[in-house]
Amino acid sequence: MLIESLIIVIYSTALILIFMYALAQLNLLLNYLNANKIKNDSPKFDLSNPNEIPFVTIQLPVYNEMYVMHRLLDNIVKIDYPIDKLEIQVLDDSTDESVKSTAEQIDLLQKKGYNIQHIRRKNRLGFKAGALKDGLKIAKGEFIAIFDADFLPKSDWLRRTIPFFKDNKIGVVQTRWGHINRNYSILTKVQAFALDAHFTLEQVGRNSKGHFINFNGTAGIWRKECIIDAGNWEGDTLTEDLDLSYRAQLKDWKFKYLEDVETPAELPVVISAARSQQFRWNKGGAENFRKMIGRLFENKKLPFKTKIHGILHLLNSTMFLNVLIVGILSIPMLYIKNEYAHLKAYFYVMSFFVVSTLIFFICYWYMYKKSHGNTFKDFVQYVVLFFTFFSIAMGFSLQNSIAVIEGHLGKRSEFVRTPKFNISSIPDNWKNNKYLRKKPSLNIILEGLLMIYFAFGMYSAFIVGDQGGDFGLFPFHLMLFLGFGFVFFNSLKPRL
Fold it and tell me: Which pLDDT does position 496 carry in this prediction?
């Protein structure tokens, strides 16, 4: 009974942690709903007054982005802002032929009168953080706007964001990500769904109550003074944006999140690109938990609730580990349930935690209906997308759990950027992309084995006990089977 008891304890702990995370999401939903009632009376620069127009530096950190560089630069120079108050830094760490074509395009733009620089380093020390820090040394701007290579800010972007810096306490203005290829595939629909939840519920829910939020690495602006005061960019985690965000807010800088300003971007269309992005985000989150947890607790000026939300924010990625634990242990728990009748009361109590899924369902519905609609048809589409999202998210739980464990243990790894393909519509094709490779990893093999494992879980529903089976966990095992199957088979295709 020792092994069974251990399984029960670990399983129960993981369920409770998931439930606590769900309650935090519910609190953010309430904050989000109340935020709409808050009047925005922030002081703003009057950009019609030349004396109030600040100098801005736009930084474009890029690395081997041959498919999107031309699109990026063409778009950036269309931003409507006084040319004498704007400089553009192309922080180019590329090692492929894109260096030459980028240099040629920049040369043409310079001849047209744009203040744009092509900045090259001798090495990639510190990766993206290092490039941003290097560019900051010579940046003339009082404010630093940052865009990744796949982002396409609209022409009025600066005019809608810069005014909020009139408040001297504002260190960052962050905008909401849009998705130019949302409907390209199931993979892009699921990614868009998850990101929409973050950029509505989480960012608004935290920001409206003064809790810590994060600069999302792109599509936002920093006050240069804030970057320097917080200790500048550091490359000791894979999510340098989250790291600097927390250091800045711990030094009392305020962040402003603008839900109504959308910055379109391209979602990864190949699962290997999504995998590398997910791995970096989740490992970086765990690394920042190790780095920041002590500073959060030691800060005596922070409200208790802000500390709790900060801790849960930094532990977001750890939820994948809890989901994986619950999934793997749910099959032995099925057999334990039907073997030990005296534990019946315990299983009744544990069944309560299905309410976690219900909470997520409600929270995400509020997010979804705001952008997609509130009709019966919209609701049906939402139900399908919600369970598709949950299934595929669970399919990613193995590799994301490995990322989390490595992050918590302090295992260092190289920054792997997410390649962009210039894919915006269904007819666009990525299969001839030069960054594709075909070598599968061990993780993919393990995901295939987990798919088989959860198929066994579904089979077990028919054979356990003496009452004709137990189908309580069948839907859960079906979702896990489909999720791992989706990730496994798609990962066998050409990879990045």
Answer: 45
Burial of 338-359, coded b for 16+ CB within 10 Å and e otherwise, reads beeeebeeebeebeebeebbeb
Secondary structure class of 151 (helix, strand, coil): strand
Active site residue 80: no
Q: Name the DSSP letter for residue 163.
A: G
* 55 token code pair: 């100098």
Nearest-angstrom CA–CA distance, 417 and 131: 13
DSSP string across 84-117: GGEEEEEEE---STHHHHHHHHHHHHHHTT--EE
Dihedral sign (CA 386, 387, 391, 397) = positive
- Nearest alpha carbon to residue 55 among 90, 78, 88: 88
Pairing mode, if any, of strands 86-92 and 116-120? parallel
pLDDT digits (tens, 9 = 90+) for 176-220: 999 999 999 999 999 999 999 999 999 999 999 999 999 999 999
- Cα torsion for 133, 138, 142, 145, to the nearest 10°? -50
Alpha helices in 235-317 (DSSP H): 240-250, 271-298, 304-314
Say which DSSP state 231 is in. T
Using CA atoms of 294, 296, 300, 301 in order, give the dihedral in degrees to the nearest 10.
Answer: 160
Sheet with 116-120, edge to edge strand ranges = 116-120, 86-92, 56-62, 143-146, 220-223, 170-179, 254-265
- Angle between the 376-395 and 186-197 helix axes, to the nearest 10 degrees? 100
Residue 366 φ/ψ region, left for φ over 0, alpha for ψ in the -120 to 50 degree band, beta for the rest = alpha
Task: Decide if 155 contacts 79 (C-beta within 8 A).
Answer: yes
Question: Which one, of 271, 233, 186, 193, lies nearest residue 61 by Cα?
Answer: 233
> pLDDT tens across 245-279, in order?
999 999 999 999 999 999 999 999 999 889 999 99
Q: If DSSP states are collapsed to H, E and C, what string results for 176-212?
A: EEEECCCCCCHHHHHHHHHHHHHHHHHHHHHHCCCCC
- Choose, from 148, 196, 241, 243, the residue flagged as catalytic: 241
- What is the spatial distance between Cα 42 and Cα 59, in angstroms, rounded to a whole number? 26
Domain limits, the chain = 1-42+167-496
Of the residues 92, 93, 148, 243, only one is catalytic, namely 93
Chain centroid to Cα 361, Å, comes to 19
Cβ partners under 8 Å of residue 274, min gap 6 = 187, 191, 268
- pLDDT > 90: percent of the chain: 82
Cα dihedral across residues 276, 277, 279, 280: positive or negative = positive
Least confident of 253-257, 263-267, 369-373, 389-393: 369-373
Better pLDDT: 347 or 104: 104
Enter the tokens of residue 23.
């309650």
Based on the residue annotation, tell me whether 241 is a catalytic residue of this protein: yes
